[in-house]
């Protein structure tokens, strides 16, 4: 069809412009041969003439089939567009790559730990100043109980008893040494040497030791609450000025708490319990405690209590952290 | 369909001959396509429009018109009736409908991101139990909104440039109403108004001419015909587009005056209809949009599948479902590169800016890349490939063909000017010419001066001005005494002058015209200044020269002169041009001169570049095949040594039918042939010929050609300037409108505007487009890498139960903070190799994000980054007291707010807030580690194959700005804003900044090794799997 048109079109070309082509005929032949391949390739890239482009099925079924073929192509024995050989090659390469990465990481971590002492943390500034925690503790800092209903306070007693097992006088005497009060218990020597710990006997807590009153005062509406300062390796309170504990009503009437007894009576953590040498060497270290005996608290009413540490180097007013140098809890003792 | 070469060689001022041919096939041009319409649906619509123009106003007499429109030709409409009509029909829009460029367009680009990010964001807000998560949701929402606004702002900026282009000057029309002439804004015209137009006016509506004085219009924007068309009040053709008594809205009246009646306004005008058709042609998704969608699918696939896997793991590990959902969201957030939308937009608009500097104004940002993937360019001839002005190309005198300089400034006329014949020829050229320079242009270079006169005469005037100097002065010295202007029956132009030699009292008669007509009138020929009798051999030489020049597609003119003997024609002789009382035969033939609209000097180079870039350049022109072919050859669209079927036939001296069609690389196809082709034949033609010229095509056929190319899977760029081109421009993957010659409708339909109408600018655009594709690849690879480093912590957190290594807010600070400027900086990266020497990317195969890219980014560099970051994390925690053995499984206790005496590896007890603060320190350390390694990642992404040292570490200064910005932002976040708890940053010890450095170096070394093997074994297994 096209040729017919050509014949019609042919005469429209004047003869004059032959001159150019005549000179270049020879070149033409070579050039055309060269270009043939390229043209073929081009046609292939264009993807039309052989019509083997991607099937353009729109239906789900066709897509599913395509997917299936992609997952496992039985003809070419390919899965996910790779043959078994290709898969094994790639897996081997990845294996070696990851193995060497793992080796690098292992070496790095190993060197890292070589530089870090097992006995002393490198930095302690994040854990300072010390936090404060109280016992008994059962998920909540609100002490609600009814004096006449043992069920409401029994778990406090159990918790305290459990906590104080480690402070039993017999145990303390057996494991720890009785060191002189009022001064640091400094133990020079190698880092990795075992350190001795000072005794903190349960009996120091007197009325709150649970020895005389096994209910820790809960049965009489005069609860005991134990306060401990978080352990920090190397932490030393100011010399001669042990950290003191003082509690008061946080908000509301000051007189809601009419009296608190502290045990030990100094209401302080004795200097002999410092410094702490870390759990690896200071195995039997028992944190010193201060027991607060709320002997006269307003009943049937929620009383917010704030207990603060006081002393040099102690911070108790961090806005975001309610447990640094202080602890806030509520008492609601019903009768 | 008969055409003779003479039509193209003889053309002075008239357009009659062309018109005749046009008229001959014009109807078929528009109607004939009907036969094949079933194949070409889109075109069918255009044809329908043509058919539906049941415009018969051109057939009616003025009385019938008056009756139809209720108007009076002399007094016009009454103001009252005009107002009534205006109210009924609505005002005529002053500009053509713009392509809607509102936020919808922006949505196209942002949508997938929105979907992902918003999806996770809204899911987050669905969990109001966790206040921090709601806060996070708000941050995410803010991010989405900000990036959306940013993208919109960028889009709007480029749209604004466009807006400045449209001529916003309100158009005025001179209208007769109530028997008075009034000037009103043209949008207030109504059907039936009588308007007057004069040269220079834009026709304010479709009008039926009632009277005309030498009125000529430029219909090029509508029909693509570049010749001025004369308009009269006679009905000359059935087709309204062809008849002479209709003037179309938005075309320009070039000269003369006319009175006409408005028959259509606004969208009902023919241009309005075509423009609205153009907006009906579906706008294809740009390749980059497809690529980005593909990329989003990959990212979404990875995110969702990992998310779901870990949701299941989390649930089976007895995490509460609510927590598991939060993990799912966290995984998705870590996987979505939030900053990429902004990055891509900025990258594209940076390139757009760069291209605008090179005269490519990009309207649609995404089109920046489209040009890069273009595999076929369908280019106009006139104006794009050529200079769009007639220029003297060859001269023939003394039996010799001389070449004239056709470059843009004509500066270098090297032909032999010593011959006497040249002196005579120059005189004829100068004198027998009515064109004049407009006054007041002394300082303007000759080639840029405005000329009053038609194209050929302008060419001759400028030619002689360049060579001889002041033409006007010469003319003054040789006073003109008589003149016969050109007309199509005579086919010559003649004038009689006094000579400038005071001793020579003879008159000089000079004549130019169709060569064969001129030769008929001659009996002698001037050779080397001597008159010789015109014998057989000289006549043959003339014919050979004439045919040769004609064969070059040039318009040939013959020149002759005669000194009138002084005794017969004394000084006082009065010449009468009507009775022709002077001889017009036995003249002396002096020479031939041929003109062509020469190719722009930059075009051949550009075409060669296109070819080496694997881009097929197809010429689509309304011009004659011979001219088209000649230009195609001279610019290299048909390369010097390839032949068409006809050429082969001629060379072998056999009939065209006997030539194997596939031997010919080149093809010249006329619109007539195209009309008779089936779709399959067209496909075959396009696929099998690498060099194609479509000649004598109607703008509608352009659409067919574009669709044919697209069926081949090509990305097609189309250039165009006329309104009729706008459907093709729209249909094309990238429509390129001409900034100078282009009509508003074309510019509206196009994605890009060439400010200088120069084809070479397209090549620049292609280069930029390819570069941006490569660089986007690098950007995405860079961005994806850290996703793994952001994702791994989450997975480890869920499975191993470590305290969370990096928080969501921190991830956002990487994605939208430190990483933004570096990833934009990659857009400034220079090409690694000559990007113009490779084939255009294959739409289906060469994806923006391919498997190697994803695997290498995720599983190689990404993983190394995560490991490096984890080492930093463990370093920080270990040095603070939590050794890895303690950390494993610690998550639950760690996060309990009530536990305020959590023991670490050394027996120290931590409050919740102290742990939290440590966790943030961990975040910061992890963040810094990723940042440090991203610096290495940035450096390795500079190249994909070459070594960094080949590329030059310092050539792209912006990269270093990026690196500096990363470090500065990190410093500010850590030390400046470290005290703001909401941001979860803390002041980090200085040494932690350097822990990840070895890993950064490791990444760099590893990538160099990768590139080394790629270069070592090109095409090998490693290359295939590791080159992205």
UniProtKB/TrEMBL annotation, chain A:
Subcellular location: Membrane; Nucleus inner membrane
Biological process according to GO: potassium ion transport; regulation of DNA-templated transcription; sodium ion transport
GO cellular component terms, semicolon-separated: nuclear inner membrane; sodium:potassium-exchanging ATPase complex
Keyword Lipoprotein listed: no
Source domain of life: Eukaryota
Pfam families: Na_K-ATPase
Annotated keywords: Ion transport, Membrane, Signal-anchor, Transmembrane, Transmembrane helix, Transport
Transmembrane segments: 87-113
Keyword Ion transport on entry: yes
Topology of this chain in the membrane: Single-pass type II membrane protein
Function in brief: This is the non-catalytic component of the active enzyme, which catalyzes the hydrolysis of ATP coupled with the exchange of Na(+) and K(+) ions across the plasma membrane.
Homology family: Belongs to the X(+)/potassium ATPases subunit beta family.
NCBIfam families cross-referenced by the UniProt entry: Na_K_ATPase_bet
Protein name: Sodium/potassium-transporting ATPase subunit beta
Organism whose genome encodes this protein: Loxodonta africana (African elephant)
Gene designation per UniProt: ATP1B4
From TrEMBL, chain B:
InterPro entries the record matches: ATPase_P-typ_cation-transptr_C, ATPase_P-typ_cyto_dom_N, ATPase_P-typ_P_site, ATPase_P-typ_TM_dom_sf, ATPase_P-typ_transduc_dom_A_sf, ATPase_P-type_domA, Cation_transp_ATPase_P-type, HAD-like_sf
PANTHER family: POTASSIUM-TRANSPORTING ATPASE ALPHA CHAIN 2 (PTHR43294:SF1), SODIUM/POTASSIUM-TRANSPORTING ATPASE SUBUNIT ALPHA (PTHR43294)
The name this protein goes by in its record: Sodium/potassium-transporting ATPase subunit alpha
Pfam families in the record: Cation_ATPase, Cation_ATPase_C, E1-E2_ATPase
Main location: membrane
GO biological process: intracellular potassium ion homeostasis; intracellular sodium ion homeostasis; potassium ion import across plasma membrane; sodium ion export across plasma membrane
SUPFAM superfamilies named in the record: Calcium ATPase, transduction domain A, Calcium ATPase, transmembrane domain M, HAD-like, Metal cation-transporting ATPase, ATP-binding domain N
GO molecular function, one term: ATP hydrolysis activity
GO cellular component: plasma membrane
KW Secreted (keyword) present: no
Annotated Cation-transporting P-type ATPase C-terminal domain residues: 803-1013
Lineage: Eukaryota, Metazoa, Chordata, Craniata, Vertebrata
Taxonomy, superkingdom: Eukaryota
